[in-house]
Amino acid sequence: MSTSSAHMTTSEFNNENLAPLFSSEKIQARIGEMGAEIARDYKDKNPLLIVVLKGACIFASDLLRAIDLKLGIEFMAISSYGASTRTSGEVRIVKDLDVPIEGRDILVVEDIVDTGLTLSYLMENLRSRGASSVKLAALLDKHERRQREVAIDYLGFGIPDEFVVGYGLDFAERYRNLPYIAILKNPEVQ
Ligand code: 5GP
What we know:
The chain is of the alpha/beta class. It has helices at residues 5-9, 24-41, 57-64, 117-127; strands spanning 18-22, 48-53, 72-80, 91-95, 105-113, 133-141, 154-158, 164-165, 181-184. It has one domain (24-159): Rossmann fold, CATH 3.40.50.2020. 22% of the residues lie in helices and 28% in strands. The strands form two sheets. A six-stranded mixed β-sheet has the order 4-3-2-5-6-7, sandwiched between helices. It has a three-stranded antiparallel β-sheet with strand order 1-9-8. Strand 2 (48-53), helix 3 and strand 3 form a beta-alpha-beta unit. The radius of gyration is 17 Å and the shape is globular. The two termini are 26 Å apart. Bound molecules: guanosine-5'-monophosphate.
């Protein structure tokens, strides 16, 4: 078995452009706590978890299994209009729900809240459909960057203003499969 640096630099999971932030173990431990808290809060209810594709899919699959309750899951996909650096606040629903949510207790599952523009739009949109309650579970919160206030009911971790990848989060569709969360040191490096 070789552990030479030449091999390390070619690894998708362990290369010089990744600075580890949260290990897989740390993520799982925190998700266990979040799941227990959600199960307590929604006791005797049948919440519908709405997973925001694609980034939240890995977080959601672990979170679901940490919630010991009868529940349902649905998926939505959202995209921001224009360049991602623009702050128009306009978002577009790329994939909508297949079911009505009137009277349901909704828990939105998102990977990261950054400016808050996407989530503030989505939460408002879901509330307007007559749900009984609409709450948010987010794995990461980059609070320094917030432009629109979004209440995060269940939060994994607060993070500094850095671009992170892994555990569902991508850079140009890469690194979603990384088992941990890392800061991408230099997005120019491929
Ligand atoms: P917001 O509307 O809060 O600015 O946008 C949130 C979305 O931006 C997230 O769902 C995610 O897709 C993307 N995003 C924001 N910060 C990061 C980051 O550090 N890494 C990655 N991979 N995506 C991010």
